[in-house]
Amino acid sequence: MSLQTASVTGGTSSETMLKLKQFMSNRGAVLGLVIVMTLIVVALFAPMIAPYDPQMMGAGRRLQPPSFAYPFGTDEFGRDLYSRVIYGSRLTLLIAAIAVGIALAVGLTIGLIGGYAGGWTERVVMRLVDVVFSFTETLIALAAVAILGPSLKNAMIAVGIATMPFYARICYSTVLVEKNKPYFEATVAAGAGHARILFLHLLPNILPTMVVVATLGVSTAILAAAGLSFLGLGAQPPSPEWGWMLSAGRDYFSRAPWMMIVPGVAIAITVLGFNLLGDGVREILDPRQTNRR
Amino acid sequence: MFRYLTHRIGTALLTVWITTIAVAMLIHIVPGDPVQIMYAQSQGTTPEQLEEIRTRLGLNEPIWVQYGMFVSRIVQGDFGQTIRGNQPVLDLLIGRLPNTLLLASVSLVIAALVGVVFGFFAAYKRGTAVDTGLMITALIGVSMPHFWLGLILLFVFAVNLAWLPVAGEDWRSLVLPAITLGVANAGIIARLTRSSMIDILNQDFVRTARAKGLHKGTILYRHVLMAGLIPVVTMLGLQFTYMLGGAIVVENVFAWNGIGRLAIQAIFQRDYPLIQGFILIFACLVVTVSLIMDLLYAVLDPRVRLS
Questions:
Q1: B245 Cβ contact list (under 8 Å, min separation 6)
Q2: Which residue numbers delimit the ABC transmembrane type-1 domain (chain B) (predicted)?
Q3: Of A138-147, A224-233, B210-219, which range is least confident?
């Protein structure tokens, strides 16, 4: 498709249109977008969608199988699982936003400093990033939770720290590319100060790429945080966090398998949505990938 | 080659050194008084006793003296005693290590086999329903939380069907955790294999081979598969470190007695010496694995070997 469309349109604003078209022609990416948008809507309107208070014990009888009144059944306290999963979407999105936000903010700062400063600062900073990167995310996250103590807030911080090197590395290489562009040399030649170059020139040029890159990291963050909650190191009861709900459900598996299946499916669909969306975004960022079909 | 070697080994040593600093400082970053937290459970500890513990652990010394003491202890193989049960930390960790390595290795083999077969067939049948089906399966595999897959397998095959034990130490108890961890990571390998194979299939030498009239099977297996596997094999080292990380969670699902299970217990019990030992051992393990993989790769790939 690309050649014809490109010759008809062309120019920078229609380049965006072209990318948009490319994205919309990727069925997987569109499905991902739909899943993510649905999730956001569900999270925003949770009180209107959920039939019960997610914490209300005895909303139904204990361990009820899925039925018309309780679409996903009830848990060991008679809480409505459907309502809990709906409210859990808020936590999942919050975790994703905060963990990715921390990783992005710290990674961006480190990458920006490392790439801009050059010399010894660059070497030391980027070597440190490599060190953190070389440990697995799980180890870093566990170490962070071990220090901070188990809680949902700390799990988000832990996941943010653990995934930071990914963002730092991409930001660093983006800065290196920007540094070679004419506008950068012009700014330096015009005698702009460090702060001006960093915040008024480099940052606005890097930010769009980094925000797009962040969509690739969301699914990792969600899975990691759910894993911590599952281990009991993240969200604490009675939180309707999906990872924790799943963990609570395992004691009742034989009598109430839905308690464990429902939150697991919720996590899987959410992560699938972000993965599909991320794949679509990656395809646009790296045109080499598109020719592989 | 020599420069690459020294550089790579230097990086590994630097990583371990930074880890020792981080681990030694861990006890100071912990909010609150670690000694009080650790010994809060044992009722009736007097302030004098706490002060004595602090002196014994060297917590009253200046920080750099503490770090020196820490490193000299570690070098002598003394990782301290656990708070619970007063066992030597190093012995405990070394005792559990083989279980974790076994789980990660078997999982890696499963992930590589499943991933390569899926990826290869998807590439061979690219653009068809088979390709789409295989890649959707791989994507679902990547998106599933593996502790969830583990629990489902556990309840179906161990609890309900009773084909395999729920927990234990023999090979039969290894089957489910290894499948869980393997399948969870097979998706990534499948996707990488597919794109690598498609790259190769589009290359000139494959067309030449076809034009020469070589048998289709010969082309596929000798030329495409072998060439396409190079990036996959490179990726396996990184995958192994992921497996070690994933093992921490999976061990807890299946009560598999590896260091991951020990670590989670240690975090819950705030057993700081054990946590410190775990981080240090695990970090060394990851560093060693990636060093070995990189060196192996350097030996195999002439572009690195000759540079």
A1: A136, A137, A138, A139
A2: 97-297
A3: B210-219
